[in-house]
Amino acid sequence: xxxxxxxxxxxxxxxxxxxxxxxxxxxxxxxxxxxxxxxxxxxxxxxxxxxxxxxxxxxxxxxxxxxxxxxxxxxxxxxxxxxxxxxxxxxxxxxxxxxxxxxxxxxxxxxxxxxxxxxxxxxxxxxxxxxxxxxxxxxxxxxxxxxxxxxxxxxxxxxxxxxxxxxxxxxxxxxxxxxxxxxxxxxxxxxxxxxxxxxxxxxxxxxxxxxxx
Length: 213
Description:
There is one protein chain. The protein has two helices and nine strands, in the order αβαββββββββ. It is mainly beta and 213 residues long. It has one domain: Porin (Beta Barrel). Strands 1-3-4-5-6-7-8-9 form an eight-stranded antiparallel barrel. β3 and β4 form a beta hairpin. The two termini are 41 Å apart.
């Protein structure tokens, strides 16, 4: 009797995963292309520079391509999907030293390229016709190449150039995203991580619809 009750409760808890309200246009798989603004690393760097204040070394980002990603996701249920994403971000800037009563001096320049590959898990928790609301989390390796050129200044007597490569895990969490459209649609997301604080893009769904309504 107890085992039967446990099985019944387990099925009851799992029911929302397999009996979610059927969307009007749901296909598998789906290809997404998106562009973001302000990754987590950029936000942290800006905060650190603000905390340091006058009289310290800080970086000035002069260019950023922005995080651009291509993703493929596959729906295992109408309310759950798994995906693979790959993206690229290129940043350029300078290292500036300043002191009290002295003019800021650019001592070096840098060029940082980041390639990210991650696995993502999506949960689509509300459906309307032509509208999907979702949340997701992703994790994967980020490969960074950092080129730095030391300039000739009163601080540095000799110029030099260095290249360093680092690998680290990168995270992303989007608490809310919204997609509009049927087979071809557009989407917008708010999150934190490798895809940026704000991201927009287009998606295309292949295959047959899960259901019609």
